[in-house]
Write a structure and sequence with these properties.
Layout: E1 2-6, H1 10-21, E2 26-30, H2 33-42, E3 48-52, H3 60-70, E4 78-83, H4 88-96, E5 101-104, H5 109-134, H6 144-158, E6 164-171, H7 174-181, H8 183-198, E7 203-208, E8 211-217, H9 221-236, E9 251-257, H10 264-280, E10 286-288, H11 291-299
Helix pairs in contact: 2-3, 7-8
Length: about 300
Amino acid sequence: MRVVLVDPSRTVLKWVTRLLEARDHEVMTFTDGLEALACIKADERISALITSAAPHSISGVELCWEVRLTATHRRPIYVLMMSSNQDWRSVIEALDCGADDFIPKPPVPEELYARLRVAERLDTMQRELILLATTDPLTSVFNRRAFFEQANEACAVARDGAALAAIMVDVDHFKAVNDKFGHSVGDTVLRDVAQATAGAGRLVGRLGGEEFALMLDGCTAAQGVAAADQLRIAIEALRWDAVGGPIKVTCSFGVSEWQPGDTIDQILKRADVALFEAKAHGRNRVVVARTELLASAAAA
């Protein structure tokens, strides 16, 4: 585990660090609570905090509270309070303010190791639950809920001036694949299309059925069109062997660019209008959302 260790005493830091490193934990030490907090916020690989009750700048209880606010449902952080004060009121206050466990200072080595084994088990379980809650089980890309959550964050970044493009992807004539070759073959096709799509961007989600969406941060509409066309060509080149003959599929794409004031629903709706246009004009093509196209769709 990557552990942040906080204590005003450099002697204590040295002693506990030696114990942790003996069990292959990666340790980052601080005497100042605010410096430790900044490090935790900046490094998402940190999964545990061990803090004394009274580091410099802020109290250990305050540090527990701030770290608990920093932790999210996507980033678990195990907090272990370390104190020479065995008063039960101190223990209760630490637990109420976000500590997961309490250990005396100086720690008994085997007790410290046991507490960290608990932390590792909890971290593993939480991360597995996060994966189950955010991943589409068939294709292993984000599920609809997780995609929209992440996409909302991408829109928030775009409000600060960054470019952002959205791409809607739909597999052409996918029902015919299921009808002719069966759903197990159709599932294989969807998995491979999803993995090809995942290679085109960081944020990819399955919105339902054979429909996927991408958010390309830092990309304009023109760059989104180029990325979509590369993906279109890559998917068209895929082949599957099945009883009844080889299979190939194509996809249609709609592209839109973030505009000031957009919500995630608005940028995806424009991409969806462009996708409908691609479907209506022959499929296996990329269409960008244009003003006249959107006006025509609104009037229909």
